[in-house]
TrEMBL record:
The lineage of its organism: Eukaryota, Metazoa, Ecdysozoa, Arthropoda, Hexapoda. Belongs to the bacterial ribosomal protein bS6 family. One of its GO terms (cellular component) is mitochondrial small ribosomal subunit. One of its GO terms (biological process) is translation. GO terms for molecular function: small ribosomal subunit rRNA binding; structural constituent of ribosome. It comes from the Eukaryota. It comes from Diploptera punctata (Pacific beetle cockroach). Pfam families: Ribosomal_S6 (PF01250). This is Small ribosomal subunit protein bS6m.
Length: 147
């Protein structure tokens, strides 16, 4: 099972109606064998432009992000279900990947650039590159660009 994020814009409604809409979306994920890891409320805001959904024009919406795990073959079914929901203006499902782990120490970062390992590697790579060097001997016995 893979990690996904569902970005929802729900039409402007009262709080109990928003809760029932979120319950419907969560139940759809549970019915497909998924697990919800996190629900984040980003608040009610004006939409960046007028959006039309199910024959209605919306200027304001409530933004939510759901992080969940579900089998990949059920994503198409979830998208179809969310598009048909009258209360949801825009459902977008994204596959999220865990961030890459890297090791960083403060001591290395505080060094001047000439002493950092990554900068020294870049300098070594640039020395290996064969650069074009101007040759003043062009085979002509005069300089053609002189005035």
């Amino acid at each position: 099972m893979l990690n996904y994020e569902l970005a929802l814009i729900i039409r402007s409604m009262s709080r109990p109606e928003i809760v029932t809409t979120l319950k419907r979306t969560a139940e759809a994920i549970f019915n497909k064998g998924g697990i919800i890891r996190k629900i984040e409320n980003l608040g009610t805001q004006d939409l960046p432009y007028k959006m039309t959904s199910h024959g209605m024009v919306h200027k304001q919406g409530s933004y939510f992000v759901l992080q969940f795990v579900v089998p990949p073959k059920t994503i198409a079914e979830l998208k179809d279900e969310y598009i048909r929901d009258v209360d949801i203006i825009r459902p977008k499902i994204f596959r999220s990947e865990p961030p890459e782990e890297f090791e960083c120490t403060l001591h290395e970062e505080m060094l001047p650039p000439a002493y950092r390992k990554d900068v020294q590697e870049i300098v070594k790579k640039s020395e290996k590159i064969d650069r074009y060097k101007f040759k003043s001997n062009s085979g002509l016995d005069y300089y053609p660009f002189q005035k």
